[in-house]
Amino acid sequence: MSGTSADGVDVALVRILGGGFKLRFHLLSHKHIGYPPSVRRAVLAAMNSQRAAVSDLSRLNFLLGSLYADAICKAQRSLGIKKIDLAGCHGQTIYHQGEVSAFLGKKIACTWQLGEGAIIAAQLRVPVVSDFRPADLAAGGKGAPLVPFLDYVAFRSLRAGRIVQNIGGIANLTAIPAGAKPEQVTAFDTGPGNMVVDQLMQSLYGRPYDRNGEVAREGNILQPLLEELLDNHYFKRRPPKTAGREEFGREYIEAFLKKRGRASKADLVATATALTAQSIARAVKSFILPGAKYRDFIVSGGGSKNSTLLKILSQETTRLGLILRPSDDFGIPSQAKEAVAFALLAYQTWRHQPGNIPSATGAERPAVLGKISYV
Ligand SMILES: Nc1ncnc2c1ncn2[C@@H]1O[C@H](COP(=O)(O)OP(=O)(O)O)[C@@H](O)[C@H]1O
Ligand SMILES: [Mg+2]
Q1: Residue whose CA is closest, atom 13 of ligand 1?
Q2: For the chain, how long is the longest CA-to-CA vector?
Q3: Among 16, 33, 32, residue whose Cα is nearest residue 24
Q4: Bridge partners, residue 192, by sequence
Q5: Which atom of ligand 1 is nearest to 210's Cα?
Q6: What is the DSSP letter of 284?
Q7: Is the dihedral of CA 154, 159, 160, 161 positive or negative?
Q8: Are the beta carbons of 95 and 105 closer than 8 angstroms?
Q9: Given ligand 1 and candidates 146, 305, 312, which is best to mutate, with the most ligand atoms within 8 Å of its CB?
Q10: What residue's CA is closest to ligand 1, atom 8?
């Protein structure tokens, strides 16, 4: 897995048995392998839809395939696992447009992930499933979120309603009422995860992210600015909905910084941190809690290491009557969760089984996701 933060690759080595929503899995281990700074820069440049050169995108597609294969090899070596049977690779999203819009006389929604599966398969000598999202778009869905398959398999409970919240570059939640059938699962992107804070840290401090939320802790939340930022059409739109750098990327940050007035750098980071927490809490309050009873609020992703963010989120979710717990408490390390999800989705595809949850993506039907590269 490599997410919109473009921080690197998360590899999960998973043993999987059974199939469908009853499949069982055991996470053997996981490893995070950061992108070298030059690759991170190239990935972020590729997401600039106005400027990226086709030749660079094509090269990056093959380069990333090779880097993903290296990452899997490295993870296998460090864990002493000699043989794997199948690899799943989400790839790096460089463009995602989940909403249909008119284009040259047709209505189009589209998505594009880089990381060539054929290269990974050739290097590892195992079949590879990649390119998971297009099949869901082709079935009328938004192509995201796909992690709800894992969330449903791993976290559903007969007794407790659970909200599973991942905080990566973008923040997304999966809501599973007690005893829910798959079609009763709701999932959507709540808005920015670390994306806004990361970009502010980069442009104001020259650092990739706010380690442990230390900068935000020093700053004051600018309440009027926060209210203005929360008054955003994305937050008000009803799910299903998806977000990416298209919504909260460079242009968003430029507009944000224009509103800074005389605010200090730390105050801006504190306000962006509160924006992430509050937009999550408001999404839960407006779109999830009216529908069913929930008890647990399970967090994962790199954002769960930002203690300032987590403190605000914990206060807000407590106020909503929820108990915040890390996914680690449920046996899935928070940094590994999304990688585990794509291991399970690859396995589903290999067995010709669907991996999307239509109520989460808005698709008309379950779809077998991805493309297979054979050795
Ligand atoms: N120790 C930390 N303190 C604060 N934030 C962190 C820490 N470690 C990781 N992060 C945040 O998590 C992000 C990566 O999270 P990740 O779940 O991999 O997101 P994505 O799926 O978008 O790649 C980083 O860009 C950073 O914002
Ligand atoms: Mg990441």
Answers
A1: 302
A2: 59
A3: 16
A4: 170
A5: 4
A6: I
A7: positive
A8: no
A9: 305
A10: 302
- Cα–Cα distance measured from residue 40 to residue 113, given in angstroms and rounded to the nearest whole number: 15
Q: Which residues have a Cβ under 8 Å from the Cβ of 113 and sit 6 or more positions away?
A: 90, 91, 92, 93, 94, 130, 131, 132, 133
Report whether residue 301 contacts ligand 1, using a CB cutoff of 6 Å.
Answer: yes
- Strand ranges inside 18-71, DSSP E: 24-34
Amino acid sitting at position 20: G
> Per-residue confidence of the chain (375 residues) as pLDDT tens digits?
999 999 999 999 999 999 999 999 999 999 999 999 999 999 999 998 788 999 999 999 999 999 999 999 999 998 899 999 999 999 999 999 999 999 999 999 999 999 999 999 999 999 999 999 999 999 999 999 999 999 999 999 999 999 999 999 999 999 999 999 999 999 999 999 999 999 999 999 999 999 999 999 999 999 999 999 999 999 999 998 999 998 999 999 999 999 998 999 999 999 999 999 999 999 999 999 998 999 999 999 999 999 999 999 999 999 999 999 999 999 999 999 999 999 999 999 999 999 999 999 999 999 999 999 999
Ligand number, closest to the Cα atom of 303: 1
